[in-house]
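Loading example: each entry is read as two labelled lines plus one structure line.
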Amino acid sequence: METVQMLKTLCQTGGVSGEEERALEAAEKICADLGRCSRTVHKSMVCEVMEAQSGGLHLLLNAHIDEIGLTVTHIEESGFLRVAQVGGVDRRSVMGSPVVVHTKNGNLSGVVGSIQDGENKNPTIDNIWVDVGMDAEEVKQKIELGDKISFVGAFRELENGMVSSKALDDRSGCVAVIKAAQKIKAYWSEHQLSPIGLTVLLSSQEETGGLGAATASFGICPTEAIVVDVTFGTTPEIADKHVSELGKGPAIGMGATLSRRMSKELATVAKEEKIPYQIEVMGGGHTGTDADGIVEAGQGIESCCISIPERYMHTPIEVVSTEDVDAVAELIFAYAKHSAQVCR
Amino acid sequence: MEQTKRLEMLRELCELDSVSSCEDKAAQWIQSHLPQDCRAYRDARGNLICEKKGRKTPKNKLMLTAHMDEVGFIITYIEESGLLRFEVMGDIDTRVVVAKPVRLESGKEGVIGAKPIHLQTAEERSVVLKFSELYIDIGAKSRQEAEQFVSLGDVASFCTAFTPIGTKVAAKALDNRTGCLALLELLHEDLAYDLTAVFTAQEEIGGGAGNAAFALKPDIAIVVGASDAQDVPGVSASKRRCALGKGVVLTMKHRGGNSDRELFDGTKKLCEENKIPYQINNQMTDRTDAAAISKAGSGCRTMNITIPVRYTHSPSSVCDPKDMESAAQLLKIMVEQFGDR
């Protein structure tokens, strides 16, 4: 499947943290030829692409499947839904947003309302509501407290291979790791190479703390992990932050808890294979990605981050470059070939 | 008109991009949906004027109006980087603009972005952004590339999909395509009296309606618009103005004037006699076409009737189709009664 098609399919499916099943079902279809897929305790999807060999390299490719959203906390007598955020919802962007309420019996459309109080302040999440166009009686029949709500953000192709959609954080990462695994598997099979362990993990609940990846990686117990997430892509108001640029390739993370060896080798193979790349310095002890949980899992797992530059993170109109998504897959593929050689 | 047919037409109307001063798309659509017996033309301001023959010539010349423009944006500058700077056309709360998609006149779609939440300071999260801080991103990497899709002065509109929600509908531009549809429905009726329907231009930025009224010299003008319904949480009953599903709204006071008392009372009586659900909004803070129409030339008596809409001037406004039905019923009866009053 083409990158754009795969992105569209995955991004346009609902999968708010804690309720990722619909998105995972879409991903599982795409991964059908990749290997045996299963669910972990916390509903992450694990796909065993090549079986781990005792004492050999076992590479884990991770991206998170969940997306930010809202959840129903109260039903007003007027039928409006009060909500809480699931993950970091940007209060500046919620007013006037179309949303989908995911209920047991299907999806219901709604819009986010808020009092235009003229206070020159953005509403807090406590002060917004979701209007589903029904009275309280009907709402109570159809919607339960705890139901998840995702933002509507249609998939749009912009110029220069850029695309806009909700949930590109981190479905674009999911596409990159799936494509990388497909490439590696095909190459190994074509050249009849001695197998390495290769597992794809599409983790749940990253936006709410990383429970999915931390627990799943303990169970998988790889020798090393590559975590693909999105990072800030530059725009005028953050030009002074020295963040990555869209279309300039994967951002290889350098940070305290990350493996320097892996980061350096990724940069080396990128140069050798002429894959464009950028360096993203992740200051402090955390990366803000699933890598934070994976490095600490079990006896500890050597990990690195590869990030896809993204504009307008955590809004329904996130933007990434499909060229960067493809380049991440290429980079992981090149790294796998390189690592297998080193190990032999 | 059947409700399903009405909703289908409303969907088509809302999906047309017709930002103030660029109303051609709405005007053409309306013109192509007029009945055979309507003579239609555009005037110097862009108003679409439709002369409809009834069974009789009324004593009072009747003019009915609905504005066909919508709020939107105008491109003011193209950055070297290919990002587009813009200003608003009409009254839009900046808060409903952040992180929304828009469509340019050329059809090219883009998004209005801002700094991600992770990099915002506590103050930035709270304080409302200014339009001067926002831009439209179409993915262009340079000014030259952007110029293939946009020129300075081009307009852009919201591009939300028309979506049924519960018993209601959510869409952009319900203010005032609901009014346009009510007026269009009226023109398809067999009417007691001749009338002139005007689909007005530029209402959201001041309006061309006054010029049409000057030229047409009506005795009575009925302005069909949208009322900002505040039937939402946190608003006390006294401040709700009007509510969805409670019927057509009769407005006495509006910014820039009042409805004619006799017409107002007469309309109320018609609603009661004909069991048409209605409500009164006497807190209309918006300037409507009625202000300009009532003072055009030597002036005319006006009556403001509206359809309640929540979240007006946002990409996701909401209305109840039932209220459109009440408005359509009322308009027909008003023509019958007011022609000879």
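The mean pLDDT of chain A is 95.
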